[in-house]
Design brief:
- It is a single chain.
- This protein has about 120 residues and is α+β, with helices and mostly antiparallel strands.
- The protein has 3 helices and 6 strands, in the order ααββαββββ.
- It has helices at about 5-15, 15-20, 40-50, and strands spanning about 25-30, 35-40, 55-70, 70-80, 85-100, 100-110.
- A hairpin with a 2-residue loop joins strand 3 and strand 4.
- The chain starts with a helix and ends in a 13-residue tail after the last strand.
Length: about 120
């Protein structure tokens, strides 16, 4: 199982220790929503805060995954609940690896529903 797969699986379980196990102590995690988390101490605060404010991962499905010795890239679909409202979007993650862990993880999100272009913009 790749590090991104392990990271996402831990999020599905809301498992702070499992998430931390995939990250270096001095990790940098950049969420697609804008927040930047630096180091284990911030991750330990972020995950319980997100869950405590109504965040819940319903499904996080990897659609494509590419792994090299020092980088992993994934495209995925994210389905979650935030403060009682369900949301879904497609996104991707770029993860740089160091010493068998993720040192840098950056997420990107699709900002609108995808559609086949037919000659006119929506």
């Amino acid at each position: 199982m790749s590090l991104i797969e392990r990271y996402i699986a831990a999020w599905r379980r809301h498992d702070v220790a499992g998430i931390l196990d995939t990250l270096t102590h001095d990790c940098l995690v950049i969420e697609s929503f804008g927040p930047v988390y630096r180091g284990h101490h911030r991750i330990k605060q972020w995950v319980p805060t997100w869950c405590g404010e109504g965040g819940r991962v319903i499904a996080w499905t990897i659609r494509d995954l590419r792994c090299l010795p020092d980088i992993e890239v994934a495209e995925w679909h994210f389905h979650y609940s935030w403060r009682g409202e369900e949301q879904r979007f497609d996104g991707s993650t770029i993860a740089r690896l160091r010493d068998g862990k993720i040192a840098y993880l950056r997420e990107y999100a699709t900002t609108a529903d995808l559609y086949d272009w037919q000659g006119r913009l929506r």
